[in-house]
Structures are given as C-alpha cells and as structure tokens.
Design goal:
mainly alpha; Muramoyl-pentapeptide Carboxypeptidase, domain 1; disordered C terminus
C-alpha cells in the first residue's frame, strides 16, 4: 500500500468505512509486527471494534489518550512510528539475547550491581533502538532508578508484570 508523505487530517472512528480505514489497518498491522501489544487486524475499509482495540493499544504505547479515535495527533504518531520502523532495518535475530547471557541465578533489582546488571543495561540499550519507549541507559553496572524505569517499560511493552524486578537475561525476544 502506498503511504503518502503527509498523514490524513480527517477523523475516523468505530463505524467509519473509507479508504483511510484501510490505510490505518495497514499501518497498524505493520506496527504490530514490532510492538507485540498492538494486535493485528483484518485489512479492509471497516473500522470495527477490533480496529478500535488495536488503535487504543497503539495510542497507549505512543503515550496519548487511548480513546480509539484516529484524529490528527494519532495520525501523526502512526506516521512517525511507521516511517521510523521502515527507515531502520528489521530487528536482529537473537543477537543480544542468547546462551551467552544465561540466568545469573538471582533476581536483578534496584540496588544490584556488577557485570550481570551491566549486561542487562546493554540489552535494554539494544532493545531501545527498536522500542523507543525504552530509555537509553548508562551501562555502569548499577541498578538504579533509570534502570528500574527501563525494566518497567520493557515489562509494559511485552505484557509482563510491571514490578521492575524482571530478569531478562537468557530470554529470546525474537
């Protein structure tokens, strides 16, 4: 599907039936391949309740009001995320999260320090390239408030319990 240089300006919502809905669904499906919390939808011109749920999930990760209505702000955010993903290459397959980073045998949480925390920070920084909601961290081996925020953001993106104590070493996300 051809994507114009500028986003549409009209508002679409549940019940709409037009070519902009087909564009919306195409973009949501593409984005859903990179953001697991955004459900994919059938591509057609009907804005149904599943489309609304997908829009709301996108709006949530984009940090805007999750009302399921696609107005100028949501269109701009969709275009920005879609084009940003298109400009970057696909996420690497299993390059930073594999057997060389086994479970360290204990939870990594606020106050922890050392090589395992530094590895966690490196992996979060790698993920931040593909998931811009994850903040880029100093790879200092200290599990402080910034690392906590990055872990909670990671947990939110992947639908995990948001407790900040998730150990991601050894998980294969791709």
């Amino acid at each position: 599907m051809e994507i114009s240089a500028t986003p549409p300006s009209n508002v679409i919502l549940e019940g709409s039936h037009c070519s902009e809905v087909a564009l919306l669904k195409h973009m949501l499906n593409y984005i859903s391949g990179f953001y697991i919390s955004v459900p994919s939808v059938d591509e057609n011109e009907e804005f149904d309740n599943l489309t609304k749920a997908s829009v709301m999930a996108f709006q949530k990760i984009a940090g805007t009001t999750a009302d399921g209505i696609v107005g100028p702000l949501t269109w701009r955010l969709l275009y920005t995320v879609y084009k940003d993903i298109k400009q970057n290459e696909a996420p690497p397959q299993n390059t930073c999260l594999d057997e060389k980073y086994p479970y360290p045998g204990y939870l990594l949480k606020t106050g922890a320090s050392g090589a395992d925390v530094k590895t966690l920070q490196k992996m979060l920084c790698q993920l931040a390239k593909y998931y811009p909601q994850i903040p880029v961290l100093a790879e200092d081996g200290q599990f402080g408030s910034n690392t906590y925020v990055a872990v909670v953001t990671f947990q939110n993106i992947f639908g995990l319990t948001e407790d900040g104590d998730e150990v991601i070493l050894g998980l294969n996300l791709y």
